[in-house]
Amino acid sequence: MEAPNNHPNGINVINGHKAKSLEVAIVGGGLTGLALAVGLLRRNINFTIYERAASFGELGVGIHFTPNAERAMEALDPRVLQSYVDVATNAEGGFLSFVDGASGDDGLLFQLRMGKGYKAARRCDFVSQLVKHIPQERVQHLKWLQSVEEDGEGRAVLTFRDGSTAEADVVVGCDGIRSQVRSAMFGSGPSAPRAQYAHQLAFRGLVPMAKVEEALGSGKTSRAIGYLGPGGFVLSVPLAGINMMHLEVFVMDPLDWSDTRSKSEKGNDEDDVKRYVLPATRAEAEKAFTEFNPTVRSLISLLPETLGKWAIFDMLDSPAPSYALGRMCLAGDAAHASTPNQGGGAGAGMEDSLVLAEILAALADRENSGAPVGLSEISEGLKVYSEARYERAQWLVQSSRRVAQLFTRKSAEQEEPISREILERSHQLWDHDVDAMVADALGKLKAKLSEKK
């Protein structure tokens, strides 16, 4: 897509079309924020991304999207989906196999078949593709949000730590689990909504495919496999495009998360990513899987000797009461951070982005038609967005926790009901009609706005 051009009369022009005058501030340039930006470009809506880092990047190693998420990405803008497809690898057979990691024979428990195959990619590669579609002038880096307030004219005023300010009609918090936009909406005290430790941690890494083949044979390098057992599970997903195996080693943790670094190591940055990723050794991961079979132990032995230990946080215990308030709203992890067990967290952000882009486009069209679009109309629109997303997204947070319980069963005695429940939960996630979700939201918005004429 071409970058917006400055029209001689001062009107902002995108791809030869007049851009709608509604101004959107996207706080956070992760996957959700970038996807939303591409969707707004397609709908000729002005926006600016305010990203706190000096460059775009993503925590984590791998990324996977379920069928519902791919449909949402396509509807948001085909280039969002294509950006993922261009860097993703299809696992052999097109499915994710789950086996008994505690038994001696890797016995098959069940398979998840997703219709279009099981794809995975590196997060950084997907981010790099998305960024190509976003004009540089629409992005401001090193902008760490400090507060959001409304000025006398009713616009939102964003103040950043460097002392700079910006104005917007709508503020979208795509700023992750420690969202400053969420704090601006609901406060930051002990009773405020926040992400909390889900009593699960992960060791993650990329291992050269040749090392995996040497240890396990070629039969286990071309398929996506989940090894399940008591207290933990391991996912191995091939990334053939870079000839690497993505390993995720998950451990259930009954203890509270403790940041053991010294004060000097922590520094003064309360939002330091090191709060969630602590230095660890491979031996820590190996210790948690002594009851698993040789295949699993061999996989873990391929991880680097020193690596990160990731604390997994979600918003099950302290959810936001809504995803919208006035001119502000939340999307992605800022709204509904979930554990990765069901593979739906990033996809939920894609669904958020689709509904939000359509709601904002409807508001912008109303403004361009000459009808008023002020705080009242924007607030109604964002409420409709929240209502369209809240129940489903909060279900995913709960369901993902439940899936971890099923994955880490103590025995295989209830194998059939466990696999049946996982399949049911998977299809509830995958089979969602994103087009109907959008149509329903737009219908509700139209009805609400018609009352204001």
TrEMBL record:
One of its GO terms (biological process) is secondary metabolite biosynthetic process. Its cofactor is FAD. It holds the Pfam family FAD_binding_3. GO terms for molecular function: FAD binding; monooxygenase activity. InterPro entries: FAD-bd, FAD/NAD-bd_sf, FAD_monoxygenase. Gene3D superfamilies: FAD/NAD(P)-binding domain. It comes from the Eukaryota. Keywords: FAD, Flavoprotein, Monooxygenase, Oxidoreductase. Residues 22-185, 307-366 form the FAD-binding domain. SUPFAM superfamilies: FAD/NAD(P)-binding domain. Belongs to the paxM FAD-dependent monooxygenase family. PANTHER family: FAD-BINDING DOMAIN-CONTAINING PROTEIN-RELATED, HYDROXYLASE, PUTATIVE (AFU_ORTHOLOGUE AFUA_3G01460)-RELATED. This is FAD/NAD(P)-binding domain-containing protein.
